[in-house]
Design a protein that fits this description.
Layout: H1 18-22, H2 26-33, H3 39-58, H4 63-76, H5 78-82, H6 91-105, H7 112-138
Length: 139
């Protein structure tokens, strides 16, 4: 090792479990992450999307349902989508996502905020799909 190389840190980094991610306050993360770029948006699209994916996956939501909801948000806006009677096929999932969309709707500027919310939902859908594929491969 030369003097310019930093030694490798053998200390394991703390990791978050699915339960840790599921307990995150997604509504609060949306309120702070949707309106402005920066660390709150980064957290929303990172840990927030993972936590949302864990929650929805545990409720049995299919990725395509969340991806379709993203299209609805992109087309009609967050506020419009949050008022729809059936956001997802399952009532518990609908109630969960409605709270998220209502939180985003309080801060989302038309078009820009709607697009950010739609992109976040697409991220959540992708993560649900990855979780399902990973489980299927593990069988």
């Amino acid at each position: 090792m030369t003097g310019s190389e930093a030694p490798m840190d053998p200390t394991p980094r703390p990791t978050k479990t699915d339960d840790d991610c599921a307990r995150l306050d997604t509504t609060m993360m949306l309120r702070y992450g949707i309106p402005a770029e920066g660390p709150h948006r980064t957290a929303l699209f990172g840990d927030g999307a993972i936590g949302a994916a864990v929650v929805l996956d545990r409720l049995g939501v299919l990725p395509r349902s969340v991806a379709f909801l993203a299209k609805v948000v992109r087309s009609g806006g967050v506020r419009y989508a949050s008022q729809l009677p059936e956001l997802l096929p399952d009532q518990a999932a609908t109630d969960t996502v409605r709270a998220w969309l209502e939180a985003a709707g309080t801060v989302a500027r038309p078009v820009v905020g709607d697009e950010t919310t739609a992109r976040w939902l697409e991220s959540v859908a992708e993560l649900i799909g990855l979780r399902r594929n990973s489980r299927a491969r593990g069988r």
